DNA sequence: CTTGCTTACTAAACACCGTTCAGTAAATTT
DNA sequence: AAATTTACTGAACGGTGTTTAGTAAGCAAG
């Protein structure tokens, strides 16, 4: 029957209206200033309505943070076409930095804020997986082809990811005040070059 | 005259009563659950009283985060006695990890949360300076003595700090769910060893 | 010793927040 | 046409940071 299908479709549309509005307001004004009441007002529904589609605010922002991961994956996936894995690794670092500094609120939600993680009570956090997997595979290929020094793959992947995240998150959360802000991009680029040069075979 | 001195002293005592209570409650229950109303209730004053000693919640938590830096400096300073700078660098990494995982709330406030930084409208964030300076100096000594590869000092210091912070902050904010929690300490130790080995001359 | 001023403090309100629940009105099924 | 299901909301609950008008005690000067 067509009615229940239409209803299901309408339900999905309503859910994504909430999600889109939440995302837009979050990217525009940040997490703190995006309240369920604000979102509800914008879509001209009562705040209580949101609870018919999302268990709570954390669940809603879990979905927002998922959209961030999709956006990042869209930028990362094409890089897998690059034959030379070391060149690819450099490019990944560059794209990652670009993403972080052009979408700091997304980055914050994806890798720093506690809110989305609180929506996750079991331990399967699939979101970051695709991107992390690309990084791991690229590093593995670099090792296989003797482009970087051989070492434990997991340890190396963790190291590279942590290093770049450290740079980005310290910048986003304003902990690099000892350096003038305009010097940071160049400092970061040098820093990444430095580390990757050390890793080169 | 003694009266105004006593008053000044009492004012300082009141301020530090608030600070101590806030710190204690924060370390016990976390930032979110430590409200000005809770703190006020514990010290048996009205919430408005706190505003006679602190401009706002961010200012209060700026002072709490400062106490965190003092605690870290207390653990770091003795290490400067170690003659061999490379050995000292290893030890600093170890102590840093220890501090982070034994005082995750402090670490969060010091290096991740936005709250304390919002209390800072000029650009002089002195807090981390002492600790950062020790790291920079240790790395400089390592380079001078030819223990690690020579490179730009600032770039290398930023790299090392970002790397370790990356590890810690991803763990604290639950972004290492792809690894079982009990394997993280060992993974981190290997990761640090790995990086430092790459840096060795 | 009393008057006036300063200081320390608070009650109450303001404007928010996330969340819950009883109730309503429309759509759908029987 | 009646009964039921669905989608939604108004209003409240219990919290938050913050401001302000007012009070009562402490102190200084007359």
From TrEMBL, chains A, B:
<dbReference type="Pfam" id="PF00440">
    <property type="entry name" value="TetR_N"/>
</dbReference>
<protein>
    <submittedName>
        <fullName>TetR/AcrR family transcriptional regulator</fullName>
    </submittedName>
</protein>
<dbReference type="GO" id="GO:0003677">
    <property type="term" value="F:DNA binding"/>
</dbReference>
<dbReference type="InterPro" id="IPR009057">
    <property type="entry name" value="Homeodomain-like_sf"/>
</dbReference>
<feature type="DNA-binding region" description="H-T-H motif">
    <location>
        <begin position="35"/>
        <end position="54"/>
    </location>
</feature>
<keyword id="KW-0238">DNA-binding</keyword>
<keyword id="KW-0804">Transcription</keyword>
<keyword id="KW-0805">Transcription regulation</keyword>
<dbReference type="InterPro" id="IPR025996">
    <property type="entry name" value="MT1864/Rv1816-like_C"/>
</dbReference>
<dbReference type="InterPro" id="IPR050624">
    <property type="entry name" value="HTH-type_Tx_Regulator"/>
</dbReference>
<dbReference type="Pfam" id="PF13305">
    <property type="entry name" value="TetR_C_33"/>
</dbReference>
<dbReference type="InterPro" id="IPR001647">
    <property type="entry name" value="HTH_TetR"/>
</dbReference>
<dbReference type="InterPro" id="IPR036271">
    <property type="entry name" value="Tet_transcr_reg_TetR-rel_C_sf"/>
</dbReference>
<feature type="domain" description="HTH tetR-type">
    <location>
        <begin position="12"/>
        <end position="72"/>
    </location>
</feature>
């Amino acid at each position: 029957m067509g009615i229940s299908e239409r209803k299901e479709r309408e339900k999905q549309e309503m859910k994504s209206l909430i999600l889109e509005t939440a995302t837009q307001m979050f990217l525009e004004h940040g997490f703190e200033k995006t309240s369920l009441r604000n979102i509800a007002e914008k879509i001209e529904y009562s705040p209580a309505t949101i609870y018919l589609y999302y268990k709570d605010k954390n669940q809603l922002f879990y979905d927002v943070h998922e959209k961030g991961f999709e956006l990042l994956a869209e930028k990362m996936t094409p890089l897998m076409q690059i034959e030379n894995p070391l060149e690819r690794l450099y490019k990944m670092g560059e794209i990652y930095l670009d993403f972080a500094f052009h979408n700091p609120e997304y980055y914050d939600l994806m890798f720093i804020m506690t809110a989305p993680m609180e929506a996750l009570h079991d331990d399967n956090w699939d979101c970051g997986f695709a991107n992390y997997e690309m990084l791991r595979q690229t590093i593995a290929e670099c090792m296989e082809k003797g482009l970087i020094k051989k070492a434990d793959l997991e340890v190396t992947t963790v190291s590279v990811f942590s290093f770049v995240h450290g740079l980005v998150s310290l910048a986003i959360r304003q902990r690099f005040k000892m350096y003038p802000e305009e010097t940071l991009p160049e400092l970061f680029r040098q820093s990444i070059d430095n580390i990757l040069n050390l890793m080169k075979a």
